[in-house]
Write a structure and sequence with these properties.
2 domains; two-stranded antiparallel ribbon; 180 residues
């Protein structure tokens, strides 16, 4: 089928809208492989909205269903940002994180405290245990601060979703990273 210019289409999979497109994004498609329907002019259709093939119409989601969808979307963006914060961290670093932090805190409180893990890391990196301990604490504080911002923001948005009394109110709840 060929897409008409200026017309929006909904790609349907398992009775649900999975993509919205126009002729600039998909000019032509095989109707045997892709089921797509024209979206009536002026009708707002969302990804995830159901489509009834028998009645050939879009089914409006209830307020509760839309709330669940929005909370899932907020959680997705939250988890993605947490993943970005953890990018490049190796399994070895994760496995020794608590030990590194504990040794760093103890060393900074009393520089006579034994630091078997930090001493080896510092030696291999060619730096002092004091500098390494300070670096570990600074990175931990930055991580915890950013994680706190993300968690607080996620919880705030989810609370707004819970309190929303209309579909219109939900449209105003948009995840925007608190870290940028």
């Amino acid at each position: 089928m060929k897409a008409k210019e200026g017309v929006l289409y909904a790609m349907i999979q398992d009775d649900e809208v999975v993509q919205i497109f126009d002729s600039t994004q998909l000019r032509e498609w095989d109707e045997n492989a892709i089921f797509a329907v024209e979206i009536p002019q002026g009708k707002e259709i969302l990804i995830g909205q159901r489509y009834d093939k028998k009645t050939q119409s879009f089914v409006e989601k209830s307020l509760d269903e839309l709330k669940e969808d929005l909370k899932a979307q907020i959680s997705f963006y939250f988890e993605r940002e947490v993943s970005y914060m953890q990018a490049g961290v190796t399994q070895g670093e994760i496995a020794t994180y608590e030990s590194q932090k504990r040794e760093a805190q103890e060393y900074l409180a009393d520089n006579n405290t034994p630091t078997p893990l930090l001493s080896e890391i510092a030696k291999k990196r060619g730096m002092s245990v004091a500098n390494l301990a300070a670096k570990i604490i600074a990175k931990n504080e930055a991580y915890v601060s950013n994680l706190g911002k993300l968690l607080g923001y996620k919880q705030s948005l989810c609370k707004q979703v819970e309190l929303a009394e209309s579909k219109e109110a939900l449209k105003g709840i948009i995840y925007k990273s608190p870290l940028t």
